[in-house]
Amino acid sequence: MAQRIQGTEDLYGGYMRAWQHMQDVARELFGAYGFDMIETPAIEQVDTFVHGIGESTDVVRKEMFRVVSGALFQNLLEAGNEDGLKAKQRMAMRPEGTAGVVRAVVEHNLVPQGAAPAKLWYASPMFRGERPQKGRLRQFHQVGVEWLGAPDAAADAECIIMLMEFYKRLGFEAKDLRLSINSMGDAACRPAYREKVRAFILDHADEMCEDCLERAEINPLRAFDCKNEHCHEVMAAAPLANDNLCDDCAAHYAQVKRYLDEAGVAYVEDPTLVRGLDYYTRTVFEIEAVGAGVGAIGGGGRYDGLVELEGGKPTPGIGFAVGFERIALALAAQGASLEGDEPSCVYVACAGSEQRDAVFSATLALRQANIRTEADYQGRSLKSQFKQADKLGARLCVVFGSDEVEAGVATLRDMETHEQVQVPIADLATEVAARLA
Ligand code: HAM
Are 103 and 44 in contact (CB under 8 A)? Predict the structure, then answer.
């Protein structure tokens, strides 16, 4: 039997409805904040991710699924390396949404000089070649937003406020969420801070793992995220980002916190929060569902240098993304659910073959009135049609018997109360709609 790839999931039934529900909530809430939807391709040039996310990040170095056409794959195998590939032939499945959206913003000049910011949101599958485990998939789904052209601290705060409202509307209680924030500085203060952290790691070289020693050279801040318990303990004494901010970054961070306080959003400051993507500047944040054991259910931050890295004019940006699968798991762990009820339907039952035509036209009329309608297509007995209607969760059944069709009426049966009334066939759709409402 063919099987799906480990770390991928099929979305169907209640799980699919949960994903759609999440998008509906996003559309309404993000719409109120002025965000429009965008869908970028699931494959991009490798360079889009390398420039944006950073060459030294795990996401780019280890987790990106690379894509080649069948013909090129053969060439690659023969050549033994990818040196012969042109930049546009080097493609990857997107591991996250920000780099592709920013590439699109640059390509279509969506934030021309002097124009209002671009506010975009997406709901899309992402791909990371990670070792699959609970809440860690190789294909997962994110809802995210990207806000380009807004340097003000109010944008940082509004993004976070909107995100926390999103969780609330999905069914989380504020007490079950932990929002951590930090400021990572900018091009003015980060280089000196990186250097301090690098020096710290090298000073403690004999206490740290091989990976961290490598990180010291290419991306020292990532050592704060090392999974090794001992490195973690050592890094607790390392210089912290928020003690090393320049005046502008410190003022920006203070303003973000003032706005969050004013909005009554609870947060904890975590000066070791560095996030796994290189494009961040200043504000970063991450959200965990307390006790759910699924890792972060969302994260984001400001990326004022990313548009330039993707070849555009200097344009500030900020955004976040949340993981659908982890949110579904976290809500389940807290006894709540994202899954909406199955939509109610009407079942049109057929007493015998002579009534088939009447069933066919009634079914058409009900669907024309946007009423979810099911019927029998297998020639079953009336009894099994009622069973089927029950299984489908039908609230009403329309039954056509021979005398009724002749008299121009149908029987409407309430599946819960078993109450039955006769309704003129011409009024069927109006009557059903009224009863379902
Ligand atoms: P991220 O923190 O890498 O950020 O991912 C955001 C969320 O996606 C995570 O908090 C988690 O819920 C979910 N997620 C990530 N990896 C996996 C996985 N392997 N399996 C299941 N869920 C996962 C970003 O992707 C940034 N682009 C967010 C952003 C937008 N920053 C600014 N704008």
Answer: yes
**pLDDT for 57-97, tens place per residue?**
889 989 999 999 888 899 999 999 988 899 999 999 999 99
* Domains in the chain: ranges and CATH: 13-171+283-333 (3.30.930.10), 345-436 (3.40.50.800)
Pocket of ligand 1 (CB under 6 A): 96-98, 128, 130, 135-137, 140, 142, 144, 146, 276-277, 296-301, 319-323, 325-326
Other C-beta atoms lying within 10 Å of the C-beta of residue 189: 21
Which protein residue has the closest C-alpha to ligand 1 atom 9? 298
Q: In what helix (H) or strand (E) does residue 182 lie, and over which residues does it extend? A: strand 177-183
pLDDT in tens, 203-254: 999 999 998 998 888 889 989 988 889 998 999 999 999 899 999 999 999 9
User: Is residue 437 exposed (0-12), middle (13-18) or buried (19+ Cβ within 10 Å)?
Assistant: exposed
61, exposed or middle or buried, with CB in 10 Å at 0-12, 13-18, 19+?
Answer: middle
